[in-house]
Specification:
The chain is an alpha/beta fold. The chain has three domains: about 70 residues, Archaeosine Trna-guanine Transglycosylase, Chain: A, domain 4 (Roll), CATH 2.30.130; about 120 residues, Rossmann fold; about 230 residues. About 30% of the residues lie in helices and about 20% in strands. Helix 1 crosses helix 4. The longest helix has 20 residues. The radius of gyration is 23 Å and the shape is globular.
């Protein structure tokens, strides 16, 4: 099989390998991941993929022709009305599963026992980096690592930008993958310590320490002393068996290609359904990459209140684009198009496959924590680093990141890279943890999703991802306003 027709209503198929003229009726060479017309498509008619319109023909397209940006365009606009039409799908029945994690004193669960340094202002990034470099001897026993997450914010910010920085950094401090956290400030920044503590709320003084660099004569000496105290506390934590229902997994795609919505994304969707069947939680974000595929998600909102929150999230993001003089469909990226994705609808219909078929139980604001078991939708942009950071901040213990082209970055939470095709898995084995390309080679998607569940529970129990092995950990904070 050289092509795949995803849905019975489709008038295009996707090439599973490079097609030569004559292969599967191709009128011209068509690369893997790109679309071939299964019938004549008149000018102005919809191009159908996933059973949904993903483009409009700009000219007559002959059966067997390559369908892409040269002859198809988006049908999206800034406007759109949504109607609640509730649908429920049955989830698979899964036997109880467990993993080995860390139970914190407040009852929360982590899958890593790390020491984190959180700078509340970019001015102290270098100090945080030096503290990490000079205190690696603390990584012993049950301590899994010592990391910091530099960023340029925390000062010269106003309004929503300052609030978002404060909210996200406080959420990282609370994250249960950190057994000990040193909050590092300068002393004269907008995001002052008292303001930050107010956002943070109640905290365990043995787990969280604070250092303001302007208030001590030697910040490296004092920081090292506080890290030692944090390490002594974190070492008391040991892995124990924990039910899979307590696991929270973020879901993200980036560097997508024409196979993303056929292999890796639906495999993640199968995984999501299985984890939710076990009582666990998953989180889907990338709101702009839901544009054009909203109905696929909205029909699964568990009630009208959740539906209304989801519609507001979509419309707020569209307003964000319009308020900056941008069209909502300025996507996909050049790399996406190179990989076979033609329009934002094409990308979005593939992106939302990660959400599986479970009910949406909640719609979360930026960095808002997961509080309901099941499938959550989180407000965040499509940008890989920004969205992966906010998934971590909302409580994801780890992140599943599907990709057709590959990317090396890692979020603060363990980041599992999932390839859409076997060629990428073999070429970039220093980046990719899991191959979903097998789904294009005959493996049933349910089996791919089951393998992925097994792999996730291994990672939750301590198996290091490729990004962890390389020490790749980064954050990026959503910014919209002025810088003073």
């Amino acid at each position: 099989m050289k092509v795949i027709k995803i849905h019975p209503l489709d008038n295009v198929a996707v090439a599973l390998e490079d097609l030569k003229v004559g292969d599967e009726g191709a009128l011209e060479p068509i690369r893997r991941g790109h679309k071939i017309a299964l019938s004549d498509i008149p000018e102005g008619s919809p191009v159908i993929k996933y059973g949904n319109p993903i483009a409009i023909a700009k000219e007559p397209i002959n059966k067997g022709a390559w369908v892409h940006t040269h002859n198809a365009r988006t049908a999206l606009s800034e406007d759109g009305a949504f109607t609640y039409s509730h649908k429920i799908y049955e989830l698979p029945k899964i036997e109880k599963r467990t993993f080995l994690g860390y139970r914190r004193e407040d009852g929360s669960v982590g899958i890593r026992n790390e020491l984190w340094i959180i700078p509340i202002v970019g001015c102290v990034n270098s100090v945080a980096g030096q503290l990490v470099n000079e205190n690696q001897e603390l990584v012993t026993g049950s301590i899994d690592g010592l990391y910091t997450f530099p960023h340029p914010f925390g000062c010269s910010q106003l309004g929503d930008d300052l609030n978002q920085t404060k909210k996200l950094l406080a959420a990282l401090v609370r994250h249960p993958n950190a057994g000990g956290v040193l909050v590092l400030g300068l002393g004269c920044e907008n995001l002052g310590l008292e303001m930050f503590k107010e956002e943070l709320g109640a905290y365990n003084e043995k787990r969280v320490k604070f250092l303001i660099c302007q208030e001590v004569s030697d910040e490296i000496e004092e920081g090292s002393r506080l890290l030692k105290e944090l390490a002594d506390y974190a070492k008391t934590m040991i892995r124990q068996e924990i039910d899979a229902s307590e696991l929270i997994v973020g879901m993200k795609c980036g560097g997508s290609d024409g196979l993303s919505g056929i292999t890796a994304n639906p495999a993640v969707g199968r995984f999501s359904d299985r984890l939710i069947s076990l009582g666990g939680s998953t989180v889907l974000t990338e709101v702009p990459e839901m544009f054009g595929a909203e109905s696929i998600l909205f029909e699964r909102c568990e009630n009208e209140e959740i539906f209304n929150k989801a519609v507001k999230m979509i419309n707020d993001f569209k307003h964000y684009f319009v308020s900056h003089g941008q069209v909502v469909y300025e996507n996909p990226s050049p790399g996406n198009k190179e990989g076979g994705i033609t329009t934002l609808e094409d990308k979005s219909c593939g992106c939302v496959q990660k959400g599986g078929s479970a009910q949406i139980v909640d719609v979360l604001n930026y960095a808002e924590p997961v509080t309901k078991k099941g499938l959550n939708v989180l407000s965040g942009p499509g940008n890989d680093l920004v969205s992966s950071t906010v998934l971590t901040a909302s409580g994801a213990h780890l992140i599943l990141f599907t990709t057709g082209r590959g990317t090396p970055f890692g979020a603060p939470a363990p980041t599992v890279k999932i390839s859409t095709n076997t060629a990428l898995f073999e070429k970039k084995n220093g980046w990719i943890d899991f191959n979903a390309g097998t789904a294009a080679e005959g493996e049933p998607l349910d089996e791919t999703g089951e393998r992925l569940l097994d792999f996730v529970l291994e990672v939750a129990s301590g198996k290091r991802t490729k990004t962890e092995e390389r020490g790749f950990r980064e954050i990026s904070i959503f910014k919209d306003g002025v810088t003073l």
